[in-house]
Amino acid sequence: MLVIQLPLGLINIAGHATLSKELHWLFSVFAGLIMCRIVYQLTGTISPLFFNGYIKLDDKKKLEWNNRGFSTFHALLVAAASLYLLIESDLFRDGAPDDLMINRTSAFSDTILGISTGYFLADLAMIFYYFPALGGMEYVLHHGLSMFAIVQSLLSGQAQIYIFMVLFTESTTPFVNLRWYLDVAGQKNSKLYVSNGVALFFGWLVARIVLFLFFFYHMFAHFDQIKKVYPLGFYSLLTVPPVLALLNIVWFWKIAKGMIKTLRKARHSQ
Q1: Could you read off the pLDDT tens digit of each residue along the chain, which spans 270 residues?
Q2: Is the alpha carbon torsion for 91, 109, 221, 171 positive or negative?
Q3: Is residue 12 helix, strand or coil?
Q4: Quick check: is 226 in a domain?
Q5: Which domain, by its residues, includes 32?
Q6: How remote is the C-alpha of 73 from its chain's centroid?
Q7: Burial, 52: exposed, middle or buried (Cβ in 10 Å; 0-12, 13-18, 19+)?
Q8: How many alpha carbons lie under 13 Å from residue 221 in its C-beta half-sphere?
């Protein structure tokens, strides 16, 4: 049985982890890795059918093109799952008579967290291997902190509601990737590029700015439960989300400047 016990009693999951759960976690992580591999290959196979210029791209561009394929797939998967678990499901509903909200998990939520862990492992491995072709240190920081928080929540069974709030912010990733695809395809002057830029701006505002404000409000309103989280998880909840929020603000500023520039260019070209 998996037992993780750090110094000073930071975390001890011996009471939560069982052999069946450990196998489930490992299978889910492996499924996430396989998912990335399959979608990466599939993206490279079907892209020439929709974009003739794909075969003319250099190896670096093809690498990033395919990488963004499984990035988009993961984003759609976890955003849909997060929306279901947070809104449609009763798993984290306030006032439920069973366990504290902070301690609630399900086989489905564990599966999604495992798959997401597999994705971040695969993407981080590619970022490091081809560094800095697929992103700089800000991507390493973002992925590293995200995986650190997800793995903690998966192994401990605590604070999953907050992990899914953050995972829902991945709903903006398809817009980011589409902007890159259109740029590479030479479509920066197209109406689709302009529309996608506006959608990205408002999507980022809602999913990565406003949602984080609600995230912090929710933590404040349920701080009596937050204090019951194991020490490492408690301090992670107090430190990791603010860092991710700061990264989102920095990226939002860049997105806003890019949208204004694109709109001005589009208006002058009319």
Answers
A1: 444 444 444 555 556 778 899 999 999 999 999 999 999 999 999 999 989 899 999 999 999 999 999 999 999 999 999 999 999 998 998 766 567 899 999 999 999 999 999 999 999 999 999 999 898 898 899 899 999 999 999 999 999 999 999 999 999 999 999 999 999 999 988 999 999 999 999 999 999 999 999 999 999 999 999 999 999 999 999 999 999 999 999 999 999 998 888 888 777 666
A2: negative
A3: strand
A4: yes
A5: 17-267
A6: 11
A7: exposed
A8: 8
Alpha helices in 51-190 (DSSP H): 59-83, 107-129, 137-156, 160-167, 173-184
DSSP symbol at 99: S
Q: How many Cβ atoms are within 10 Å of 24's Cβ, its own excluded?
A: 16
- The number of domains in the chain is 1
Token pair, residue 166, equals 């953050």
Judge whether 1 lies within some domain: no
Q: Is residue 12 part of a domain?
A: no
The answer to whether position 106 is within a domain reads: yes
With a CB cutoff of 8 Å and minimum separation 6, the contacts of 20 are none
